[in-house]
Amino acid sequence: MPDQITSHGQNSRGYHYSNSNGSYYYQNTNGSSYYNSGSGYSQYTSPSGNASQSYGSSKK
Length: 60
Known about the structure:
Residues 1-60 are annotated as: Disordered. This protein is mainly beta. The chain has a domain at 1-33. The protein is 0% helix and 50% strand. The protein is built from no helices and 6 strands. It has a 6-stranded antiparallel beta sheet with strand order 1-2-3-4-5-6, with no helix packed on it. The termini are far apart.
């Protein structure tokens, strides 16, 4: 069964959604975006398209 979007919304700063697996995504009005897998992986993409990734654990 695919993950389901559990919440989403939009405001003056951008758009976001969250999934049932704990992941979430933000798309900002300046063109940047941020994704978090909910299990340790995240990626930020700047307005110019440069991506920065992290593989740290989200569980302590």
